[in-house]
Amino acid sequence: MSVVYSRRLKKELQEIQIEQADPTKRAAGIQLLQADDLKIWFFSIEVLGESLYKNEVFHLMVRFDPEYPFKSPAVQFVVSDKVKPPVHPHVYTNGHICASILGDDWSPTLSVMAICITIQSMLASCKKKELPEGNDDYVRTAPDNPKKTRFVYHDDTV
Amino acid sequence: MEREDPSIRDLPSAPRPRAHELPDPQDPRTEWINEITEDTDITSLPTAQLYELNQNLLDSSISSATPLMAELAPLTVLRAEYEGGSDSFVKQIDFLISKGYEGIRRSRGDGDCFYRSLAFAYIERIFNAEDWGIAAAKSISTLEAFLPKLHEAGFDGMVIDESYEIPRDLIRSIVEPNPGSNNGQTLTPAQLLEVFQNDSQSNYIVMFMRMLTSAQIRGNPEEYEPFLTHPDLGEQMGVKEFCEAVVEVLGREADHVQVTAISEALKVNVAIAYFDGRDKDGNVEFVKFNKAIDPSEAPVTLIYRPGHYDILDRRSIEALPFNM
């Protein structure tokens, strides 16, 4: 039944493309960069207005498996020569993000855009730029796909 | 005898990672082993890989053990499973049979069993209604009238349309041939079961049921808030927090509050037989959630064994297709 699954993604993509073409509808600071297929999409994210991340642009990579939307997509910040992940208590330097909606608390009622907005507001509300505890150890041993990590979610307020 | 609220006891806690199950970043065994054979010493695997291996085994045992929704089976089959065990369970089964419940339709124990069972029994009841045309029209109009509440609850319009489509088309096809079907026939009981056994379609239906439940709670906070507690910790929870973490996430079990909310949203009477072997005389208590406009309407009947819901039926074998 992969037909049904990719139908949802196609609809989401269509909706995002329509929104992006219309400045009154588009989510400020979030832009679809690339969606060549229904497996991997890239977004740019920035926090507009006053925040610790003023004038910083980040890239988000979203990977889907055939069970989307019943299984969460794998979401991480891109780390390359050109873009770096944000320094944030829930973001590891390899781009992995510790957020419960990307793991245990994922709901199929969420959309890719809802994920982008959640991550944007996670940055917007950050009080102090610092790396997660144990960043180096985690990054040294982390699997390539963040979905293979069992994160412990302790603090939703940061 | 005064019975305690069945919702507050015997519920299994959801599996949660414990600290010792998490990959230890200091663990020197961090190289994942690509090929695992019978000879592989599993203690040599890195913790993370071992965890994944365990999880996969568990997942596959769940997925192969029971279909998402099974065929109707005689209650005597369940009786045979309990014989040799506790006498009070056997007595309870005999009690149910004496009350005219002869069949059980099992659902997979994946945490979605309540929503899946209720949805199946709800749609099947339309199927079996004396005037199924009226029953289908009534159901569609109840659901359509509820759609604005899903929008008010904050769900994405596209997500609402997507998840409503499958139950709506199913209910419609009881009466009129599905536009997609090539033989111009209306739904058969076998096809209904097939849809519920199909991973994707079945999960869309579960998701829709969860959205109805969530929207009902979100739309009536004063009514539900006092009863919202964390399923494991028992702490008080707010409406939004509860709906996001307990109702809208697949695999999270339903409790009294969710049963009340979905019965209200669907405007249906639900009766749940509590099958827990507690009553020495073998009586089974039916907890009733009467939310239909006509209170005398026959309820959708489920059977609850601690931690799991199945459908209780007065028939013991599958019905034959209607339109043959």
TrEMBL record, chain A:
Keywords noted in UniProt: Ubl conjugation pathway
Domain UBC core residues, every copy: 4-158
Keyword Repressor: no
InterPro entries the record matches: Ub_conjugating_enzyme (IPR050113), UBC (IPR000608), UBQ-conjugating_enzyme/RWD (IPR016135)
SMART domains: UBCc
Name this protein carries in UniProt: UBC-like protein
TrEMBL record, chain B:
PANTHER family reported in the protein's UniProt record: UBIQUITIN THIOESTERASE OTUBAIN-LIKE, UBIQUITIN THIOLESTERASE PROTEIN OTUB
Database matches in CDD domains: Otubain_C65
Top EC category: hydrolase
Source species of the chain: Lactarius akahatsu
Molecular function in Gene Ontology: cysteine-type deubiquitinase activity; ubiquitin binding
GO (cellular component) term, any one: nucleus
InterPro entries, alphabetized: OTU_dom, Papain-like_cys_pep_sf, Peptidase_C65_otubain, Peptidase_C65_otubain_sub1, Peptidase_C65_otubain_sub2
Name of protein: ubiquitinyl hydrolase 1
Any GO BP annotation: protein K48-linked deubiquitination
Tagged with keyword Protease: yes
Pfam families named among the record's database cross-references: Peptidase_C65
Domain OTU: 102-315
